[in-house]
Write a structure and sequence with these properties.
The protein contains 4 helices and 12 strands. With 240 residues, it is α+β, with helices and mostly antiparallel strands. It has one domain. Strands 1, 3, 4, 8, 9, 10, 11 and 12 form an 8-stranded mixed beta sheet that branches. The relative contact order is 0.20.
């Protein structure tokens, strides 16, 4: 097993990003009108869709490359400086506020230090994430460690034969992330693009397994504001 901490150079190649979608988001942010004025003369604040939460016991998430054995882990977090790592961690600690109207109940801002709910349902004892967050990565990493120790899932009734967790995270200045796009907004200074992807695959025998991939792309400012979050909560989950 090797554990390593990764910092990538400024000249690193851009990871695959949906350029057309990212370009549209950054253009909208650049062209957004001034906030509406409320009755008191103060800018009217839109309803928040996300909030940040970090437990007091949180530890740094180290890179990992464990590609031997039946239960495997790959964690790669790419950044070029401590400041970029803080912005990357901010996006990992950003959680959605989902209304009941889209049939996802139970999502709300935590109180008294409670962790936010990041999953939609459970399948054979596995929580299915609705978004890529630090809590989701921590959950599946702990699950791999439990399987490596010989424990079972599904209330102790299901023994997994193999499992594979892959998590990648990267941050780039917006101008670098949009390199090659046919058009992009002029005001990209101080903006960064963060991309997270988590994949899970496990096998518990014939016609018994679980596979899914979740991705998140976010735009953040250098001063630590999450400007926009794009994710794929409706990506398919394959249950064999």
């Amino acid at each position: 097993m090797t554990i390593q901490h990764r910092q990538t150079p400024k000249g690193r190649p851009a990871p695959p990003v949906r350029l057309w979608l990212l370009t549209g988001v950054l253009i909208l942010l650049a062209l957004a009108p001034a906030p509406l004025q409320g009755e008191t003369g103060c800018p009217a604040q839109p309803e928040p869709r996300y909030f940040t939460w970090t437990p007091s016991t949180s530890q740094p998430l180290d890179d990992a490359a464990e590609r031997t054995g039946d239960f495997r882990v790959t964690i790669e977090r790419e950044y070029a400086s401590e400041a970029e790592e803080r912005l990357l961690a901010l996006v990992e600690a950003t959680y959605p506020l989902y209304p009941d109207s889209i049939l996802l109940t139970g999502f709300s801002r935590p109180t008294d230090g409670d962790a936010p709910r990041w999953w939609t349902s459970e399948v054979d004892g596995f929580r299915i994430p609705v978004a890529v967050t630090r809590a989701a990565v921590d959950y599946y990493l702990a699950l791999v460690r439990s399987l490596q120790a010989g424990k079972t899932t599904g209330g102790g009734e299901i023994r997994q034969r193999t499992a594979d967790l892959e998590y990648t995270a990267s941050i780039q200045p917006a101008a670098s992330a949009l390199e090659g796009a046919t058009e992009h907004p002029r005001d990209l200074d101080g903006k960064y693009v963060v991309r997270l992807e988590m994949s899970w695959e496990s096998d518990c025998g014939p016609r018994c397994g679980l596979r899914f991939t979740r991705t998140r792309t976010a735009v953040v400012s250098a001063d630590g504001q999450v400007l926009e979050v794009l994710e794929d909560p409706l990506a398919p989950v394959v249950v064999d």
